[in-house]
Fold:
Amino acid sequence: MHKPRVRVADRLVGNGESVFVIAEIGINHNGSLELARKLIDGAVLAGCDAVKFQKRTPELCVPRDQWDIERDTPWGRMTYIDYRHRIEFGIKEYDAVDRHCRERGILWFASCWDEQSVDFMEQFDPPCYKAASASLTDTGLILKMKLTGRPLILSTGMSTLEEIDHAVDVLGRDKLLVAHSTSSYPCPPGELNLSMIRTLEGRFPDCPIGYSGHEVGLAPTWAAVSLGATFVERHITLDRSMWGSDQAASVEVGGFMRLVSNIRDIEKSLGDGVKRVYETELKARERLRRTAGITARK
Structure:
């Protein structure tokens, strides 16, 4: 059987490999480097393979007519463009993130929301990029990430099959990973549609297929692994009640520890589908089959 794999740094991601677990920090750091470090440490404690951030150039990503809209924030009332700058990391913060991740032995990368952000991230030699679901139809941006030569994870929330097919055609399947996702925060169980994992496997047999989840709880992510997801991504937070649009759909560190631990148990328990009699069964087999034979003769 063909087993598509993509190398991300020193890891192979794909069928037959250990599930690649990504803790999405995103903007849950709320512009705080101290909080970002704690989230990285939480991901390491949980046994994640990588953490992911989001990188934006606010003037390019915020529509001009929204710049001056005022909103209340934990730092006082400010315009939306000022707020976006307040929570955006720059070179100083990402230098510190890079050092911290290297010291902790965990990979890190980012979803880039504009082409200028790709140029910014290139200086950190990331192991891969992630195209957010919102960017799937932004051909210039997804090509910019792909043309770096690095692996690209393509998230497919809020997209039709036709849009997904077009994006894959544009990108080509080399070093491409495709993530099933539903872009609701948090996502109700009835809209998770996890069977799409198998649909995507059939549609793109040359690409590792994974899952990016925004639901409350852990069971659907475990189900995604059972259905064949070769990588999974969930948002991580220190406290789901914190300020921020993604916090409620995130997993706290204790939950992430359970998430990863049970993923490892699931991948062990799935096996290879080849029926065998295990050594641990032999004593029971000898005893119980003998008992069954005596019962049958009576």
